[in-house]
Design brief:
about 15% strand; Rossmann fold; 12 helices; alpha/beta; about 375 residues; globular
């Protein structure tokens, strides 16, 4: 039987880099809004600029504090920025005296744990990506190994990612998947041009170069299908040149960031996750919850714990553009398969529904407060 949600009033402080369109920000918006709805006090500390747009919706009762401390542009300014962030976090911990602090993303986790030394505050750190793939800097890895055992709790998004933690910190960890909000299934008119979508930052991690390569291999076999890649990032120019060199500018679109969360689902007929690595792949869960058939690289981490191959989606060997092309050919050419996978995906995604996931966060906060005597 599930434990009851924490009943005592609680003040939770979230520490996060910014409030843009990322998956960590979406998770914070869902959890914080649920907690203030039950009467908790929730404060969000972010380091972006006060004038920057807030992409995800937050309950008006959530207190948002933005400190305008951007990351540095060179080693010296980066070190200075990290020091300023540590001091700002430490002031918040001492002045606001939250019952529980939740930090998200590796570098913010390290800074928060550093700032908390000697304050008595209980810190829960949450990894939101693949620690092994993203943490190439030996200094950050050394700090992580020293500081993570000081946390009151560690949240990982997948079971496989637990092996990335220092051995001394693994007993503190538990797996909590991301909450997924069901979005109305997209509508595609019969006989209309079909749309395959990819979604994410235009970075090396997201593997859109591999997706474009794979689509190019089978595009001529499916003239009724186009590829639309949503997102912005440093690889836009390179991807646009790749598309042009393949002569597919009329078949592949890069429309930029979706104006609204989940807006990329509109008129989509299938979704592809081409990432080289992930933490959980929120967009994959959102597509499944909307009833879209999905194709995903079986990268570390997430897809293998979200997709049951051939049952509610197609899993492809990690990084294999040829295998991805074959999977795209299969799914674009078989309407019955798309329907079967989409129906199964929607049912499968119910395990990531917000209420069940938020209840797991409730239990974690309860456990941390019980140990702390809060």
């Amino acid at each position: 039987m599930s434990a009851a949600p924490a009943a005592r009033p609680c003040h939770v402080l979230f520490v996060i880099a910014g409030l843009g369109a990322g998956g960590a920000e979406r998770v914070v918006s869902l959890i914080s809004s649920a907690w203030v709805a039950r009467g908790w006090r929730v404060t969000i500390m972010a380091f972006d600029r006060p004038q920057d747009p807030v992409y995800h919706r937050f309950d008006p009762a959530v207190e948002i504090r933005r400190f305008d401390i951007p990351p540095g542009r060179n080693p010296a300014s980066t070190l200075m920025a990290q020091g300023r962030r540590i001091l700002a976090i430490r002031r918040q911990l001492k002045d606001a005296r939250p019952d529980v602090v939740i930090s998200l993303l590796t570098k913010i986790n390290v800074l928060t744990l550093t700032a908390a030394i000697g304050t008595g505050r209980k810190i829960i750190v949450s990894e939101r990506n693949n620690p092994r793939a993203q943490n190439a800097n030996n200094a950050w890895n050394a700090l992580l190994a020293q500081l993570y055992p000081r946390a009151a709790g560690i949240v990982m998004q997948t079971r496989a990612s637990l092996d990335c933690l220092p051995q001394s910190a693994r007993s503190l960890a538990r797996v909590i998947h991301n909450p997924i909000e069901a979005i109305a299934p997209p509508a595609s008119a019969a006989g209309a041009q079909r749309v395959l979508v990819g979604v994410g930052r235009l970075t090396h991690q997201k593997g859109f170069d591999l997706l474009i390569e794979a689509f190019a291999k089978v595009a001529r076999l499916h003239p009724d299908w186009n590829l639309r890649i949503w997102g912005e990032g440093e690889m836009r120019g390179m991807l646009e040149r790749q598309v042009a060199s393949l002569g597919l500018s009329h078949r592949i679109e890069l429309p930029g960031k979706s104006e609204t969360p989940g807006g990329w689902l509109a008129k989509a007929d299938a979704m592809v996750l081409s990432s080289r690595y992930e933490g959980f792949a929120n967009v994959l869960g959102e597509a499944m919850a909307a009833g879209l058939p999905v194709v995903a690289f079986n990268c570390d981490f997430g897809p293998a714990e979200m997709v049951d191959n051939l049952v509610d989606g197609l899993l492809v060997p990690d990084g294999d553009a040829g295998a991805l092309a074959a999977a795209l050919d299969r799914i674009m050419g078989d309407a019955a398969l798309r329907m079967r996978l989409g129906i199964a995906a929607r049912q499968s995604a119910t395990r990531f529904a917000s209420p069940a996931i938020i209840e797991q966060w409730d239990r974690l906060v309860d456990d941390v407060r019980a140990v702390a005597g809060a």
